[in-house]
Every structure is written in C-alpha cells, then in structure tokens.
Amino acid sequence: MSRLPSRAWLLLPAGLSLLAGVDAGLLLLDLPSPAHAAHLPDVHGPLMVLGFLGTLIALERAVALRARAGYAAPVLLGLGGLALAIGLPRTLGQVLLLDGAVALVAVLVALWRRRRDDPVVVEALGATLATLAALLWVRVDAAGVVPLLAGFVVLTIAAERVELARVHLPASAEPTLVAIAAVVATAATAAVLFPGAGSRAFGLSLLLLVGWLAPRDVARHTIHSAGQARFSAAAMLAGYAWLAVAGVAWTVAGVTTTPAAHDVVVHTIFLGFVMSMVLAHAPVILPAVLRRPVPYRPLLWAPLVVLHVALLVRVVGDVAGLPSLVAAGGYGTAAALLLLPLTAVLTAALPAPARAPAHPATAARPLVRS
Fold first, then answer.
1. CA-CA distance, 153 to 277, in Å (whole number)?
2. Which of 127, 130, 125 is nearest to 186 (CA)?
3. What distances in angstroms separate CA 87 from CA 21, 224, 252, one per listed residue?
4. How many CB atoms lie within 10 A of CB 193?
5. CA 258 to CA 113: how far, in whole Å?
6. Burial of 237 (0-12, 13-18, 19+ CB in 10 A)
7. Cα–Cα distance, 17 to 86 (Å, whole number)
8. Shortest CA distance to 245 belongs to which of 210, 277, 213?
C-alpha cells in the first residue's frame, strides 16, 4: 500500500487526456461539450491513443520491467498528453509524446532481452509504429498517421492475447503472430505512404489478424463461465467483432474521403476493439499497477454495454447518413468512456466481494509478483 501514490499519480495525466479527448470528440461532432477549447479537436487522436492509451500501456510495461528507468515512458507520454490537453504549444506536446514512444520501445527491448519472447517482439513493433506516428505528426495532420496509431494498439493487444493463451496454442503460434504482425506493420506504413492501395492493404491485414487470432482465443470457451471470466470473454469477443468490422470498412473504403467513412474506420478500432479490450483487462491490470484490490463487480457491465450499443448506433448513423443517430451514438460513446474510470474507482472503493478465481487466460498477465 505504501507504493500506491507513486504509481497512482501516473494515472492522472492519462485520465486528463481521456477527459480532454472525449471533449474533443464531442466538438468534432459539433455537439455541446463541457469545455469548448478550440485547440482540442486538432489533437483528438494523439490525445486518446498516445496520451491516454499510450500512458496506460507504458505504465503496465514499466511495472513489468521493475526498473525505475522504465517509468520514463509513462511519465513522458502522460506529460505530452497533459500539454496537449491544457493547450500548451503543440510542439511541446509532440516532442514529449515522441520521447515517450521512444522510451516505450526501450522498455520493450529491455523486456525482450530478459525473456526472449516473440510476443514482446510484436509489442516492440507496435511501439515502433507509435514512434513513427509521433514523429510524422510533427509534419503532417493527425489523420494521416491513424493507420500507424491503429497498428500500435492492435499489435499490443494481439501480443498480450497470444502470450496469455500460449499454454493452449501450438508451438508455431508465436512465430505465426510475428509474421502476421510484420504484415500489419508493413501495411500500416504503406497506408501512410500510399494511401489508396495501402489503406486497403491495411484493412486486409486486420482481417488476417482477427481471422487467425479470434478463433484461437480462450474467450470463446470462457464466455460460458460466470463472473469476471464471462465479463472479460464477452468484452474480448465483442472487440474482435468490431476489429473485423474495421478491417472490412478499411478494405472497402480505402482512403476515407468523407467524415462518415473516417468516423467508421477510426472508432470501430479505437472504441469497439481497443476500449473493449481495456475493459476486459481492467479488473486485473489495475490491481497490479495500484497494489490494491480492484475486484470484479457486475457494475463493470455498464460501460461495456453502453459502449457497444452507442457505437452500433453511431456506425448505423454514419452508414445511413442520419446525423441524429451519429449524435446520439457520440454522446453514448462519450458516456461509456467516462463510466470506465468511474466504475473503476467505485470497484476499488467498495468492500471486496467473495468471488471464484478467473480463468488465467481471460485476464491480463500478472504484472507484479510480490
């Protein structure tokens, strides 16, 4: 418990990036928002992916490394997100995010040297895409680096799922993951350099990944369990479904020349897939980071259900050209993102209920062993 403050405060910049990113998303939809800050819409993507998700990923990896130097990555990413959120010169935020992404690559290289695991190679490849995105964002619009940011989070999650399921997978699974990850990373880079063909290739690479990984995930079996195991499995399977939708959308649309097409390809990945996976792993990641119990509670279903229902409404609105549905879905997804930290705090604050142990492959890897 004595170490709680030193880790908990690192979550604060990530939380502020989330709040600012949600506000920016509402502004992009021309919807009323709590803070009408003119600078936020232009930094929406980097805030959410590098400032929020990047900080969480880097913090989780720093805890796994067990070295003080590893915390440079979440600190730099968190400060970069904070700088963008409060409106400091954009160059400052960009440089901090770039330095944080480079530091995350260094953390993952150190972890690979310790364990020589193929999934860590895939995570490092994803962090390299994040670094390239942060570097290019200094020169190009944030929309131009979306495939790189998507590749970063998708490869990070895919690597974790394979690492957790390795006891159920054949020996060839990890080398296969590395090969598929190389295809995804190459296609993400091609989507930036050659937007037309590259974007479609990236969509196909996402379909290749989900088509290989989803049928092998133990969540297909633990969905029939109860409690935390069932919750995590439901969140994961829903995430895979949205990743497949994103792959199809990117393959069909190619370069997203309309706001509706851009909305679909971006949010099916970052909300449907990524945030669903974050919810799936929250009951185990948070205790490891905070060193205090954050047990599973049924109230965790609230942000999960709101997220997927609202995203479905939003996508239908985009496809059908119905602004009222897009607005309703936008408010719903914003509510789901805000419910996530709220339910996490309530889960940690309330007395721990008795529960059965979760299946080991439905939760995040044990980051800290006391």
1. 10
2. 125
3. 13, 47, 37
4. 8
5. 44
6. middle
7. 9
8. 210
Sign of CA dihedral 272, 281, 40, 330: positive
**Where in the chain are the domains?**
1-115
Q: Could you give the CA distance from residue 26 to residue 274 in angstroms, rounded to a whole number? A: 19
Write the CA distances from 230 to 31, 274, 284, integer angstroms.
35, 18, 14
Nearest one of 264, 118, 268 to 180, comparing CA atoms: 118
112: tokens are: 């690979």
- The string of pLDDT tens digits covering residues 171-199 is 889 999 999 999 999 999 999 999 989 99
User: Given pLDDT bands bounded at 50, 70 and 90, which one contains residue 353?
Assistant: low
Q: What is the DSSP string of 160-214?
A: HHHHHTGGGS-TTHHHHHHHHHHHHHHHHHHHHHSHHHHHHHHHHHHHHHHHHHG
Distant-in-sequence, close-in-space partners of 68: CB < 8 Å, separation ≥ 6: none
Which amino acid type is present at position 110? A
Q: How far, in Å, CA of 178 to CA of 123, rounded?
A: 10
Flag whether the pTM goes above 0.85: yes
Sequence-ordered strand ranges (E) for the chain: none
